[in-house]
Amino acid sequence: MPGEKILVVDDEPNILDVLATVLGFHGFEVTTAATGAQAMACAEAAAPDLVVLDVMLPDMGGLEVCRSLRARGHRFGIVFLTARDARQDKVSGLTYGGDDYVTKPFALDELLARVRAVLRRVAQPPPPPGGERLRVADLELDEDACEVRRGGVPVRLSPTEFNLLRYLMSNRGRVLSRAQILDAVWDYDFRGTSNVVDLYVGYLRRKLDRLGPPLIHTQRGFGYVLRDSGTAS
């Protein structure tokens, strides 16, 4: 997606140089920052379309940067760089408003694929007027208003969570594999790990299940299905 602006934040000069070079080669306009404070300032000044954000920074840290940016109303994509197998970093990153993550050491083609996929998601236009209103049990999703309610209680979701829930509700009662969900919600070019699906499903469950019986069920060995808890398996 040539011409789109990306802010890369990492305190390792070698990583900054490599990512700036590779992303620039692929047509992106790249700005770099080495600390959380610099990242906050650059995000305000450069108005990026996406931020590649390291979790471990020398001052305020990537998770706090993400939370602060979201609190200020910034809706650009955020892809975290995390340490290998740091599951809590991944979960926290998604919780604080991140859109995806890549573990270090990472392959450049994987990072590029995820950057492009997130850019496509955040650039999606809002649904046209008269969009569908989906309902399963007491769960309701309004595409026009981009709102979700369960039992009449509003449920705050990130854009990726909203897209995931919409896909599950549109396929109510149908078992969906991780690969199908990746294709439909993340639109990945890269056929890598599907752990991001499990993390997002888990986080979506926590938001929905506190308001009523579970609606998203695991079909072991196959994938996930959304159905009314009163419906037989």
Structural summary, described in words:
The chain has 233 residues and is α/β, with parallel strands linked by helices. The chain has 2 domains: 5-123, Response regulator (Rossmann fold, 3-Layer(aba) Sandwich); 134-226, Winged helix-like DNA-binding domain superfamily/Winged helix DNA-binding domain (Arc Repressor Mutant, subunit A). Helix content is 40%, strand content 21%. The protein has 8 helices and 11 strands. The chain has helices spanning 13-25, 36-46, 62-71, 87-95, 108-122, 159-170, 178-186, 195-209; strands spanning 5-9, 29-33, 50-54, 77-83, 100-104, 133-136, 139-142, 147-150, 153-154, 216-219, 223-226. The strands form 3 sheets. The chain has a 5-stranded parallel β-sheet with strand order 2-1-3-4-5, sandwiched between helices. A 4-stranded antiparallel β-sheet has the order 6-7-8-9, with helices on one face. Strand 4 (77-83), helix 4 (87-95) and strand 5 (100-104) form a beta-alpha-beta unit. Helix 2 (36-46) runs parallel beside helix 3 and helix 6 (159-170) crosses helix 7. The longest helix has 15 residues, at 108-122. The N and C termini lie far apart (43 Å).
Compile the SSE list and pairings:
Elements: E1 5-9, H1 13-25, E2 29-33, H2 36-46, E3 50-54, H3 62-71, E4 77-83, H4 87-95, E5 100-104, H5 108-122, E6 133-136, E7 139-142, E8 147-150, E9 153-154, H6 159-170, H7 178-186, H8 195-209, E10 216-219, E11 223-226
Parallel strand pairs: 1-2, 1-3, 3-4, 4-5
Antiparallel strand pairs: 6-7, 7-8, 8-9, 10-11
